[in-house]
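Issue: ligand-bound run for nicotinamide-adenine-dinucleotide - logging full I/O for the record.

Environment: standard queue, default settings, no custom constraints.

Inputs:
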Amino acid sequence: MQAVRAAGYRVTVLGADLVGKEERATRRRKKRPGGRKKREMSTALLRGGLVGCGFFAQNHLHAWRDVAGAEIVAVCDLDLDKARTAASTWGIRGIYQELPAMLARESLDFVDVVTQPATHRALVEFVAQQRVPVICQKPMAFALEDARAMVAACAHAGVPFMVHENFRWQAPMRAVRDAAAGIGPLSFGRISWRIGHDIYANQPYLAQEPRLVIADMGVHLLDLARFFMGEMTRVYCQAVHSDPRVVGEDQATVMLRTVNGATCVVELSYFSQQAAELFPQTLVHLEGRDGSVSLGADFELSVRVRDAVSRTHVGAPAHSWSVPPFAAIQDSVFNIQQHWADSLREGRIPETSGADNLRTLALVDAAYESAARGTAIAIA
Ligand SMILES: NC(=O)c1ccc[n+]([C@@H]2O[C@H](COP(=O)([O-])OP(=O)(O)OC[C@H]3O[C@@H](n4cnc5c(N)ncnc54)[C@H](O)[C@@H]3O)[C@@H](O)[C@H]2O)c1
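Outputs:
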């Protein structure tokens, strides 16, 4: 079944054929690793090319230096000065302005796309056409149709495709999920990001996006909702525009129903004036039959299982390049990139493969549709 957007108040995520194609592509690559030009990957370092040397790529580049089994051998940016600066900072030999030139001249095992969302589809499709595995930053695309085309292109070309959805790779989020395994079936979840930090200083383009906090941050928290509570069947959302400096919605509350009938509330705000600014922390509260798990401010994890209560600090390990208060986010960038290198080498489908991430993006899309229509949206 080809994935299609259903008419009316339903969002269809993807057909079994895309998942099957992704599995077959991974199996084929297991037999014949390497990109377009066959390379022996068993012992050699995986050779990556990075596209887009802007704000967030600095975290990717730091992390790639620490990832075991992979290295970045070429960088590319339309702004050649940024590519040159990245190359000289990291001792990278290949410097390019355009992706086609990079792929024509370099023998790559994967490409890491770290450009703004509107450019993702064209870049990922081009890499897939060259039969090179590809990672793409979140959100995979603004439009679900574009994301489906990207997943289909990679499946058609038989190349692994992962969305760089790093929030679930934060050590505190792994600790929450581990603890949640001990509280029985979940009935309620709340995942919250309410900040007032000036995100527009480093990412000025966000102020002009008609789809703002749900597409930019909701995509992370909705993925966490799936990570903790499983797949969703219904989405209701109210969105608010508060900051006169920005175009899109900067606050949203999303209520979801899981396949098991549990409720999850995702809170998003880029316009909160709190006594304690928590940027870039995500707060989580989960309740189950036998207890609860809460990730509070500054990574304090409180767990109750029946009569036993425990409190621990679950902050992420710092890297030599960590900058407060970003340590947990930066560690998650390292973790997901190590996961990609391991998955590629071992012929495994990464956790947040393109096909998997379509399910997260369908929740983003349904949240916008719900906010626009004022009604709940069913997820098929
Ligand atoms: N996971 C996170 O926590 C997180 C945080 C911030 C940003 N991001 C994501 O990272 C991505 C990049 O965001 P950013 O803030 O770094 O953007 P940015 O604008 O700072 O950097 C993007 C770079 O890509 C280059 N570029 C654009 N099109 C290109 C092309 N066709 N070929 C080569 N280079 C091209 C631009 O010149 C620019 O230097 C976005 O998808 C964003 O959502 C993720």
